[in-house]
Specification:
Layout: H1 2-28, H2 46-52, H3 55-87, H4 92-107, H5 110-123, H6 130-154, H7 158-166, H8 171-199, H9 203-208, H10 215-223, H11 229-251, H12 253-256, H13 260-263
Helix pairs in contact: 1-11, 2-11, 3-4, 3-6, 3-8, 4-6, 6-8, 7-8, 8-11, 10-11
Amino acid sequence: MRAHSWLAGLYWAAVTISALPLGLIALTSLAQGSIVSFPLGPLGLHWYATAIHDPGFRSAFGLSVMLAAASAVLAVVAGSWIALAAGLVTRRWLRLVFLGGALLPLVTPGIVHAVALRISIAVIGLAPGPIAILLGHAIHATPYAVIMVGARRATLPVGQVEAARTLGADPIAAFIHVVLPWLRPALFGAGGLAALSSFDDFIRSFFLGGYNPTLPVLIFGRLRSGLTPEINAISTIVLLIACLVGAAVERLRPISGISASALG
């Protein structure tokens, strides 16, 4: 009992230490003044209204949302194909090599991956901009789909597919009516993680972007002139969106059997 209480106290201490800086960002975003200083004085939503009516913020926010949605779709399609194809490889060493190559973007240092992507788009003649960012985000997020869909596929009852084939279903019909419904929770979970990864990806957006910045790049650019409550308000909005997407992915965990936080 004493050990359980000690572990619980350690857990909540870690949560408090992790949440304290985020809470300070949210708190200072409510300051009415033009600089961040303590004591904060009167609190309000002035800087949130300023951010929402800021054309630069709206443009960057819209671009980030579109890139997140598109890269999630591409990552889920590519990752699902890789995970299903890996299940057909009978040789264990060959399957490990196949999956290792697919998961490489997830373990490669961000700065190294961004530089490699920048060189790659130059080689293929693709100019920096939204398309290049989309390609980089999708490549980086594909391993999430490989992991989640692959783990879900491994739990698929083979008898259900065999029963569908016995009843006259062709391979395509068996996939649509048996395999795809079984994979659906993992597909939604992987899509959520991919979208979240794209939405807050700074390093690849910075190296691959053109003249239209994504939201993280916009925040970085404005930090050069100093930390302001408006930047904190924008950061809090990003934080809230990330929390909502993360909660939605975690909501699927009991169904898919995978913890979103473990993959983050």
